[in-house]
Amino acid sequence: MVDARQIEAEIYERLSRVIDPELGRSVTDLGMIAAIQAVPSDQSDAYDVTVRVELTVEGCPLSETITNQINGAVASYPHAALTPHIEVSSMSRDKLADLVAGLKAERKQNPFTKPGVKTRIFAIASGKGGVGKSSVTANLAATFAALGYDTAAIDADIYGFSLPRLFGVRTQPTNLNGMLMPVTAWGVKLISIGMFAGADRAILWRGPRLQRSLEQFLSDVWWGEPDVLLLDLAPGTGDMAISVAQALPNAELVVVTTPQPSASDIAVRSGLVALQVPMKVRGVVENMSFYEHKGERLEIFGAGGGRRVSDQLTEALGYEVPLMAQLPLLPEVRETGEDGRPAVLAEDGSLADTPLARSFRELALDLMDAGSHKA
Q: Is 131 annotated in some ligand binding site?
């Protein structure tokens, strides 16, 4: 019969491939496997295996996911009895403090500006409210996630936060001794001031406090190493747009407008921020471009706004700022968004087979085209 210590060591090796979905590290690296014990079974030649698991916090929202993965890894081991014993508890305060301190020391503040970072960062901006900027952000983030990209999104519109509602989020981020775990919905890791207690009250922040909110979202939240980070900016060219440029100089700006001149003229101003800060304008998205009615395209809000913004920014900035997408006006974008599901997704979370989803898919792939974002 195989030695019990060898079995325990081999099971530990198997568990090193079980990844905590929030921290993106193996449960063994995080110290979550407190003990493994293998004893001969009374009913077979196999061993009864007991695994003591210490989760990061009591009532961890992903505890069932983690324990199921651990259970599966142990149950598939050939010398283990069919049903392992998983004993779940939470880490001591000191052990958790040491873990968080180690993670913070490794990350060293804003993780998106360190050398070698591969995260593509897109700041979604608009000159004025009401053009569907947050809807574009939500559906674009959901599209990236459905395409297999590790996707994160920050609701940087502190005054008019919308992403929690659009993603159906009603929970708060898990707090690990001062380090926050973003809430995951429809495959997207999210953070928003709207997730915290009292967020329904009026927010009267300015200047340094507003900038500090973005810094906290970047440095006090454990993002891992996402492929894509989207920021839903407040309308206009105020403090938050400048803060994003200062904190994330590698961010690329995507300007959202609607077709009518009153929106497109103001949208140009949001793109011209790039003249004052080190941020490249990646392109323009025209939202609510047309409405399909009995096979006819009705231009309810006029036409040409996206092209005007594209042409004016190209001339002012000295490099091509393309019109990347013209999105239709669809009632289901509002209806599914209010129900907490981005309209590009089917109910199972996959990318829907619709013209809208295909438009967002093309936009997402165009944005991720590494060769096309260089000036």
A: yes
Q: Which residues pair with 43 in a beta bridge?
A: none
Q: Is 127 annotated as a binding residue?
A: yes
Q: How far apart are CA 26 and CA 13, in angstroms?
A: 11
What mean pLDDT is predicted for residues 117-128?
88
Query: Does the annotation list 148 as a binding residue?
Result: no
pLDDT tens-digit map of 174-211: 888 778 889 999 999 999 888 875 555 544 444 445 55
At residue 63, the pLDDT reads: 81
Helix-helix angle 261-271:305-317, to 10 degrees: 30
Q: Please, what are the domains in the chain?
A: 4-91 (3.30.300.130), 120-367 (3.40.50.300)
114 is in an annotated binding site: no
Specify the pTM: 0.77
Contact, 9 vs 42, CB < 8 A?
A: no
Answer yes or no: is 129 a known binding residue. Answer: yes
- Annotated binding-site residue? 224: no
